[in-house]
Amino acid sequence: MATGAAHRLARSGFRVCLTEISHPLTIRREVSFSGAVMEGRKEVEEIVAERTSGVEEIYRRWEEGKVAVVVDPDCSIREALHPDVVVDAILAKKNTGTRIEEATLVIGLGPGFYAGREVHLVIETNRGHHLGRVIEEGEASPDTGIPGEISGYTWERVLRAPASGRFKGGKQIGDRVEKGEAVAWVEKVPLKSEIGGVLRGILHEGLWVEEGMKVGDVDPRGIREYCFTISEKARAIGGGVLEAILMRYNK
Length: 251
Description:
The chain is of the alpha/beta class. The chain has helices at 2-11, 35-39, 55-63, 78-81, 232-250, and strands at 17-20, 41-44, 47-51, 67-71, 85-88, 105-109, 121-123, 134-135, 158-160, 165-169, 176-177, 182-186, 189-192, 197-202, 208-209, 214-219. The radius of gyration is 18 Å and the shape is globular.
């Protein structure tokens, strides 16, 4: 979701800096700028993000037309950059500390924020009629806890760690997966898919996971292209962020 917003803003000419944790737990790695943390560079639909450190490097990335990615869990770089806009795209389903005073415009994605009090504006992230809607007062729809339905599947398409331990990959993103097939391992315990389709996302190999943690995603539609392009949901949310910025600054 964060990449969907960052991509739309970068294409629209905004200078974007993303902050990340040192070991991102991103599932849809082929369409996430967080990949720059592990790989140094990540390209998503012709927009390039590079791992960066320090204000001077961030400005260099912007001059090159790139997105800057900084390992900075506390977003302390904000104090040096003085951004016009702060977007909380953590999607923790709660506010983890973002304040309305942090920028001229502060935007929260999804539930956990109250527009007009904790942030200026909220973007609806729940699939359905209001996806991507800009909320000027109030909150987004509460988290249902149920994964979005794709071809009639919800829980079944989500891959969860069968045990706690070191995650070891097997199948690659975009590979065909059959029902009951092992796609990865946690230590020596196989992680099997409950449905057939294509592997749309999988956790980076070598990370420590806890039993029950989401580590992958199977797309039952079986269209490989979808694994390497921004989803309709992320694109809609990104459009909501762009609309929110233009609303505020064009008034």
